[in-house]
């Protein structure tokens, strides 16, 4: 038995790919982050950012919180803020799927939608302006060390133990970069030869959850020295692999997971041998109103 839903964050399953890898000398495992109670890998960072801010006294129950999000972090923050009885406003582009917006509101958060053409950058600008007025506290997941530390404390150790220390490559989409930064930090301390592979979209490809940031918006927590290699994935390949994950592996996930998997499969086919772990960021049910599964 668990005392709180928060106790269910982390310790997500690791499952071996059955059909996607043809190389007999390489095993690909998926870290199923959709099994977190809020449905994504962002539960880890959201909990650590909120709990650490409360513990330090940076925020109290009376603090007005604001955060820009493309979806999963907002859902996680809304769930956890509700548990801690915190006042939270989330800002996201108006072209986000309705499932994400409704889920945040279901957890009790206020949701403000910004112009879709401005993307997440526009949402970030809006939140920054509100915070500059002095009435709000912003976690700013893009520059908050509690983001990547969540993965240093949990995701990395779980993968290390669950692979019995045999992991050779770690593959992760790069958005805020918290997952790859924290996991890389832990895994490299265990074995410096483990290769950390980041995934970005090709030019003109739009993959929710994976970004190639303009210089002005590059996450401050990102340290390029913690990533050994970056693979680019097209929007078409991400969509196709998202569908293959569902139909061939029984893994129902979002487009960023499809993008990471496409890169991981490509990596597996070029290796002589290895044990590759790739992050499945979330669940596919929050994208049903999009065209991904049409």
UniProtKB/TrEMBL annotation:
Belongs to the cysteine synthase/cystathionine beta-synthase family. Residues 6-282 form the Tryptophan synthase beta chain-like PALP domain. It comes from Salegentibacter echinorum. The modification N6-(pyridoxal phosphate)lysine is found at residue 42. Its cofactor is pyridoxal 5'-phosphate. This is Cysteine synthase. Pyridoxal 5'-phosphate binds at residues 72, 175-179, 256. GO terms for biological process: cysteine biosynthetic process from serine.
């Amino acid at each position: 038995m668990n005392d709180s839903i928060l106790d269910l964050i982390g310790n997500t399953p690791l499952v071996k790919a059955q059909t996607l890898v043809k190389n007999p000398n390489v095993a690909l495992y998926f870290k199923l982050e959709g099994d977190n109670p809020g449905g994504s890998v962002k539960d880890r960072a959201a909990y650590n950012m909120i709990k650490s801010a409360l513990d330090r006294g940076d925020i109290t129950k009376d603090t007005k919180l604001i955060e820009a999000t493309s979806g999963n972090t907002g859902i996680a923050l809304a769930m956890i803020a509700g548990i801690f009885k915190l006042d939270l406003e989330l800002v996201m582009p108006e072209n986000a799927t309705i499932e994400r917006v409704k889920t945040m509101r279901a957890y009790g958060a206020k949701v403000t939608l910004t112009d879709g053409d401005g993307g997440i950058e526009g949402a970030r600008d809006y939140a920054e302006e509100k915070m500059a007025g002095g009435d709000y506290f912003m976690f700013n997941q893009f520059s908050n060390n509690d983001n990547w530390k969540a993965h240093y404390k949990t995701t990395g150790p779980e993968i290390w133990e669950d692979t019995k220390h045999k992991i050779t490559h770690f593959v992760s989409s790069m958005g805020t970069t918290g997952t790859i930064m924290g996991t890389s930090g832990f895994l490299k301390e265990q074995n410096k030869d483990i290769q950390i592979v980041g995934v970005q979209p090709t030019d003109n490809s739009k993959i929710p959850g994976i970004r190639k940031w303009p210089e002005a918006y590059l996450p401050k927590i990102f340290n390029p020295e913690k990533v050994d290699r970056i693979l680019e994935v097209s929007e078409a390949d991400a969509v196709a692999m998202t569908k293959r994950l569902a139909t061939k592996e029984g893994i129902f996930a979002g487009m960023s997971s499809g993008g990471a998997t496409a890169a991981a499969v490509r990596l597996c086919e070029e290796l002589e041998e290895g044990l590759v772990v790739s992050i499945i960021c979330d669940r596919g049910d929050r994208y049903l109103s999009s065209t991904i599964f049409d």
